[in-house]
């Protein structure tokens, strides 16, 4: 994993590298059964070089803990290793440039389940589902050759903006503890 982190730090594959001296590498248990994938880091993540360390990370941690899991038992990462300016949506080219790092993380961690948080993670792993509302995708298991089974829920940032979405997100993340014990 240290070799991969160095490759991420040295990356110059897209324009985001010019404005992001601190890359945001995945972290957690390299032998985790569950890999949680978000979009890209925000301001706090860019400062610390760690995914989900701001308000959305706190909400993720609350959900994990209430389900009997901790951040230390899962692998948490993002589709992008750099923060897009003004937290804009990642471009297709940026997602493609960073895909090599997600692939490497999958090869190292070897999770039994991928949890896709939000639209960008869906677009990155299941592009054919990109236009379907998340409320219609959650609760299903998606399978693609060469990847672990995937489940989908809202991104915690979206959950922070909407009380109903927050409840759904927390329920989905709480269920990961039960799921992890059955893997």
Key traits:
five-stranded mixed β-sheet, Uracil-DNA Glycosylase, subunit E, 47% helix, 183 residues, alpha/beta
Describe the structure.
It is a single chain. The protein has one domain: Uracil-DNA glycosylase-like domain (Uracil-DNA Glycosylase, subunit E, 3-Layer(aba) Sandwich), CATH 3.40.470. Helix content is 47%, strand content 11%. The protein has nine helices and five strands. It has a five-stranded mixed sheet with strand order 1-3-2-4-5, with helices on both faces. α4 (55-66) packs across α9 (163-182). It is globular, with a radius of gyration of 15 Å. The mean pLDDT is 94.
The number of distinct helices, counting runs of at least 4 residues, comes to: 9
Distance between the termini: 23 Å
Overall radius of gyration: 15 Å
Known CATH architecture: 3-Layer(aba) Sandwich
The CATH H-level homologous superfamily: Uracil-DNA glycosylase-like domain
Biggest sheet, spatial arrangement of strands: 1-3-2-4-5
| DSSP strand count | 5
**Total number of distinct structural domains:** 1
CATH topology: Uracil-DNA Glycosylase, subunit E
Strand content: 5-15%
Question: Taking all residues together, what is the mean pLDDT?
Answer: 94
CATH level-1 class: Alpha Beta
Spatial shape:
globular
């Amino acid at each position: 994993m240290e070799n991969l982190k160095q490759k991420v730090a040295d990356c110059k594959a897209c324009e985001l590298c010019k404005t992001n001296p601190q890359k945001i590498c995945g972290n957690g248990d390299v032998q985790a059964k569950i890999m949680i994938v978000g979009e890209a880091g925000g301001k706090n993540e860019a400062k610390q070089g760690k995914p989900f360390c701001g308000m959305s990370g706190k909400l993720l941690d609350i959900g994990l803990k209430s389900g009997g899991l901790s951040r230390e038992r899962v692998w948490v990462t993002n589709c992008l290793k750099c923060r897009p300016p003004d937290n804009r949506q990642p471009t297709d080219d940026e997602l493609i440039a960073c895909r090599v790092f997600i692939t490497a993380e999958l090869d190292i961690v070897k999770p039994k389940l991928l949890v896709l948080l939000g639209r960008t993670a869906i677009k990155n792993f299941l592009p054919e589902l990109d236009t379907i509302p998340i409320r219609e995708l959650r609760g299903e298991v998606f399978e693609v050759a060469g990847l672990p089974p995937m489940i989908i829920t809202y991104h915690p940032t979206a959950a922070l903006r909407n009380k109903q979405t927050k409840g759904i997100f927390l329920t989905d993340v709480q269920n990961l503890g039960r799921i992890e014990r059955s893997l």
